[in-house]
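Weekly sync notes, structure subgroup
Attendees: PM, AL, DS (notes)

Item 1: joint prediction request from the bench team. They want all three components modeled as one assembly rather than separately. Inputs as received:
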Amino acid sequence: MGNDRKIIRDVYESLLACYGPQSWWPVTPPGGRSPVYSGGPTNVSQRLEVMIGAVLTQNTSWNGARKALENLSSQNRLDFQSLLEIPEEKLGLFIRPSGYFNQKARRIKSLISFLNERYGADWERFFAEPVSRMRRMLLGLYGIGPETADSIILYATGRASFVIDSYTKRIFYRLGITPRDIPYKELKQRFEKALPAESKLYNEYHALVVIHGKERCTAREPECEGCPLEQICVRRGISRGESGLR
DNA sequence: GCCCAGGCTTAAA
DNA sequence: TTTAAGCATGGG
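Output from the run, pasted for the record:
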């Protein structure tokens, strides 16, 4: 699709003009109590927080993941050593508000154990691994699939790996440029071919997709009137009901 | 009460 | 290789 390029770039410009910069990923400031959108992590503990948050928000609203993170940080458990030592069952209690708490506790322990076994006390060297290598390692872990791996690479380490999520699939299906249930890898490649490989751009693009999917292009009843993508979307003028898609 | 949310694993066809 | 079920809390 040689036309992907223009559409994908136009969508970005329109979303950015409408919503403005999103300053992802939310992290807890030093001494703070709650994650805030302030342009992403600036130190190792915030990078770790992003990784944990990426697992916690799987198929769950950020609000639930945020509460789970607040529980951990208010108990001083949101650091590498604490997460390494805490029993899985106890971790589960802290992160309950994020849902799937048993699975997610296991996933977080799996990630932390891996870092510990591979790097020991110098676990933060993980962040310096080359992108492709890091991605392979992450995908080999229990409970880390393509989206979580890409989120970690992009938002925790600040390197360019485009993140696809359910909002991306829904929005671009509705726009009429991708099939329903397009495989993750395929859609990711289309974005990465259409855009310069800049982490800042990937970061902002995904964040804009999320806010658009959350606030306007919602699952049940998209609010098409006044949509910033009205001129691009093939569904403009189509009545509700046949609007299709979840 | 129902649907949805910043997915992933496992088992079955 | 594709499809479905299971995981679970919280907000609209």
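Discussion: The first helix of chain A runs from residue 4 to 19.
Action: AL to compare against the crosslinking data before next sync.
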